[in-house]
Amino acid sequence: MSTKFKTVITTAGAAKLAAATMPGGKKINLNVMAVGDGGGKLPEPDAGQTQLVNEVWRHTLNKISQDNRYSNYIVAELVIPPEVGGFWMRELGLYDDEGTLIAVANMAESYKPELAEGSGRAQTCRMVIIVSSVESVALSIDSTMVMATQDYVDDRLAEHEQSRRHPDATLKEKGFTQLSNATDSESETLAATPKAVKAAYDLADAKYTAQDATTTRKGIVQLSNATDSVSETLAATPKAVKVAYDLANAKYTAQEATTARKGIIQLSNATDSTSETLAATPKAVKTAMDNANGRLAKNSNGGDIPDKKQFARTIGAVTSTNITFNDASGWYKIATVVMPQATSTAVIKLYGGAGFNAGSPEQAAISELVLRAGNG
């Protein structure tokens, strides 16, 4: 009996495979498989084909690999999902990433139903091609376009569950870890059991007795949102602080100070200003104080005058006359005293010197005359 179903390398595919085996040749990247219905009948694959007789669907390969038993066999696999269907399948075409039909095959007739027909199923199509050198074909596919079959998923899950090929957990990565009941371990690769946690908790709970916080010591405290409380045992929450702040901020508008109200004011160093809207600085006050301290005090009645004689001359309270003593002795008029008020008292001091005596006509020994004005 002659072979009814077969796979044929196309002329274009053979040329590319031959070129790929040459030194420096480019590998063929097989990545797409197409399905056709053969135009209603089973077609005979021909090496001269560049496309299927009647293509009905195509998609990225789900898998491409080297056969486990025959090293020069390349197995390409396509999965048609359950939601795709409504057509007959009689032919397959294997394409590279440049759109060239590399191999074509016919297959046993099979109808691919779609879900709407009530019999949706996933369909897997495989094509095997024989090459002289497997190195001429890139055995890789785009994993983002792969669709896993249910059988494949179930097999991989079962394999994973039965294996111990799992990474250990670390401080940075998830993984498997061993449990431990130890309460004195410093391990960073073990996980504490609830029993270990309880033992540590019970130990800590027995040693520490929480105390309430006060204004004189640290401790635990209850939070409060109140803004009108006078409690000294509660702690204000940020919400309470914000409410109080917003209230204060809305009520107070800074105003300038005047002689009749408090407010904000500008400072001034001036000592000669008549402003009623500025405030004197300590520097200005000191300057004024130093100036006042240099003035005479009223209640001292001139007692704090350093040179009283000079002061009397300066204000014109005393007039004097310079005279020349032509004679060896005698009496001379040396001053005229003006009494400023009816009750004033004037003192005239007489000084001698250079062999001359000072006195008055009545009594030569007197060196000081006191005059007092009367009332008329």
Global geometry: elongated
Number of helices: 6
**How many angstroms separate the termini?**
178 Å
Query: What's the domain count?
Result: 3
Query: Helix proportion of residues, in percent?
Result: 10-25%
Q: Describe the biggest sheet?
A: 6 strands, mixed
Report the structural category.
alpha/beta
What fraction of the residues are assigned to beta strands by DSSP?
Answer: 25-35%
Radius of gyration: 61 Å
Poorly predicted runs:
362-367
The helix-strand sequence is EHEEEEEEEEHEEHEEHEEHHEEEE
Mean pLDDT: 80
Number of strands: 19
Tell me about this structure.
- This protein is an alpha/beta fold and 376 residues long.
- Helix content is 19%, strand content 25%.
- It is built from six helices and 19 strands.
- The chain has helices at 11-21, 150-162, 194-207, 238-251, 282-293, 308-314; strands spanning 7-9, 28-36, 55-60, 63-66, 73-80, 87-96, 101-112, 123-130, 137-138, 178-180, 190-192, 222-224, 234-236, 266-268, 278-280, 319-320, 335-336, 345-349, 368-372.
- Strands 1, 2, 3, 6, 7 and 9 form a six-stranded mixed β-sheet that branches.
- Residues 362-367 have low confidence and may be disordered.
Give the helix/strand layout.
Layout: E1 7-9, H1 11-21, E2 28-36, E3 55-60, E4 63-66, E5 73-80, E6 87-96, E7 101-112, E8 123-130, E9 137-138, H2 150-162, E10 178-180, E11 190-192, H3 194-207, E12 222-224, E13 234-236, H4 238-251, E14 266-268, E15 278-280, H5 282-293, H6 308-314, E16 319-320, E17 335-336, E18 345-349, E19 368-372
Biased composition (Polar residues): 177-190
Subcellular location: Virion
Pfam families: Phage_fiber_2 (PF03406), Phage_tail_fib (PF12571)
